[in-house]
Amino acid sequence: MTGSVADRALPEEVGRFLSLDPGVMSCPVDAFDELRDIAPVVEYPSHRMVVVTGRAEVSQVLRDTATFSSNQHANEESSHNMTEVLRRASAIARQRGGHTDLLDASGQTYPPVPPHSDPPLHTRQRRLIQPAFAPRRARAAEDMIVEMADRILDGLGDRDQIEIRSEYSDPLMVGYILTELHSVPEHAEMLLGWVGAFIRMQGSKLTDDELDEIAQARVDFDEYFLERIADIQANGSDDLLGKLVAAEIEGERLTVAELLMVAQTLLVGGTETSSTTTSKAVLHLTQHPELADELRAEPSKLAGFVEETLRLNGPIHLLFRRATRDVDLGGVMIPAGTRVGVHLGAAGRDAESCPVPHEVDVNRTQPPQLMFGSGAHYCAGAELARVQVRVALDRLLRRYRLLELPVPFEDIRFHPQINLHRPVELPIRLVRD
Ligand code: HEM
């Protein structure tokens, strides 16, 4: 690959960002700019991948599913962990005599599902999934989300300081998605324990004991949702899982194994992202109280603020793809097999396509932000997420006159992760009238 990809020495700020330096993680904007200034397509030698930061090139990668496969992992360690966990989970399940019916004709279990499946499998799955995410269903969810948000805020009583994620946005997003997954908020802790185990697979290579523990979580999770699916099959249900179980197009249905993996995807992808977006929007408002006043006075501007938050402060920095053939990207020849990091965080601030890119402009309509992806894998839950984050912010602003950061901005720590950008803890002081 040498010589085919820009391989200049990386600037200091970028180097610090790649080594997950806590100082840069809290505000990686300069690193994004430096990275994009080198070239829209750059080699990340330490992570053995090419990173795409230009908006035009990011769109090209996301839209070309034939050249850029989604069926791969963030790194080789994650891939190893995933394969091992699934192998061990299948063995446990077979021993228990439980869900051997998950194995398909080729003996394969736990198939890739969106967003990690490629066409033609992805095309079939997406056609079956899409109706459950119709925009009118997302709009109909608004009343329920308002009620849940108010209930959580009522429960805070007179408290004047909270940790905004664990005490507000997490319970709101998780509580909502659990009702949609035919479950109850009281099961949140147990389910999130399992989900936390799955998330641990996406890091460094795990030990045998850790792999066994996560395989056990996999089987427990499956058994829990197999019961839910059986209940829906017997009694029907109008929730999102009910829609997915009933989905049928030309005799095609999602298999039970696919339903389990989709439930997992929704529990992880449909909660963490919306909660992080809410918390980062609140963090921005603590630094710009005049904007909070404007949004409180004119709630119709909240939708624009949510879009700008996603563009500037979204929860996802990198998506991953793998080149299926040699391809020219932004004038750089990328060999087949190359791992490609699609940098949504940097693309959102590309001055080539976005005038005054670092400023929040709630009236901005162009270009559309890319935080929900683009093309065939465009986020199925985008409309729902927009409603969730807008309502979460609206209910806070209606109740509190001021949202303040009780610690210096520089003290807010972010998880040292290359693909997701989320505060570890975000204390917020709530000031009433
Ligand atoms: C602010 C919140 C959210 C953000 C920023 C976000 C972002 C994304 C992105 C970037 C993708 C494309 C991934 C790729 O191309 O590799 C995606 C896919 C997806 N998202 Fe979201 N998401 C959010 C919330 C949600 C919610 C609330 C749900 C559902 C409850 C959801 C369900 C999905 C599904 C099912 C896919 C797979 C689509 C496919 O591959 O066809 N997301 N999301």
Topology:
Blueprint: H1 12-18, H2 22-25, H3 29-38, E1 41-44, E2 49-52, H4 55-63, E3 68-69, H5 76-95, H6 121-129, H7 135-140, H8 142-155, E4 161-163, H9 164-180, H10 188-200, H11 208-235, H12 240-246, H13 256-269, H14 272-287, H15 289-297, H16 302-313, E5 318-323, E6 327-329, E7 332-334, E8 339-343, H17 344-347, H18 382-399, E9 402-404, E10 427-431
Parallel strand pairs: 2-8
Antiparallel strand pairs: 1-2, 3-5, 4-10, 5-8, 6-7, 9-10
Helix pairs in contact: 1-3, 5-11, 8-9, 8-18, 9-14, 10-11, 11-13, 14-16, 14-18, 16-18
Bound molecules: protoporphyrin IX containing FE (HEM).
Protoporphyrin IX containing FE is lined by residues 62, 70, 114-115, 126, 177, 265-266, 269-270, 273-274, 277, 314-316, 319, 371-373, 377, 379-381, 384-385.
Structure at a glance:
The chain is of the alpha+beta class and 433 residues long.
Specify the structural class: alpha+beta
Global mean pLDDT: 89
Portion in strands = 5-15%
Q: Could you give the count of β-strands?
A: 10
CATH topology label? Cytochrome p450
**Biggest sheet overview:** 5 strands, mixed
Q: In terms of per-residue confidence, which ranges show pLDDT below 50 for 5 or more consecutive residues?
A: 1-7
Helix content: 40-55%
